[in-house]
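ARCHIVE CARD
Drawer: 12
Card no.: 0347
Subject: one protein chain, sequence and derived structure
Cross-reference: see card 0346
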Amino acid sequence: MIAYVDASVLLRLALGQPDALHEWRDVHRGVLSALITVESLRTLDRLRVRAKLTDSEIAGRRATVMATHDRALAIAAQAHGLMAIGIEE
């Protein structure tokens, strides 16, 4: 199945939260909005502020690998201790 994936679905999966999309295993291709990065970062920031989490705690809840073709995003991820894949050296 091809599915449009919004930030709420992506973040529940990435953060290992309960009630993640049960049909995710059936999705063979995800289509994302160009705004998903901004939406996700804003949501993570709200989570950090509301739960009084440190940046390290947020990073620990995320995937340990940043998959991106955006060089600037990869550099930022690496600066925060995440391995970045998908960028050409």
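Annotation on reverse: The helical segments are 7-14, 36-51, 55-61, 71-79. DSSP finds four helices and four strands in the chain.
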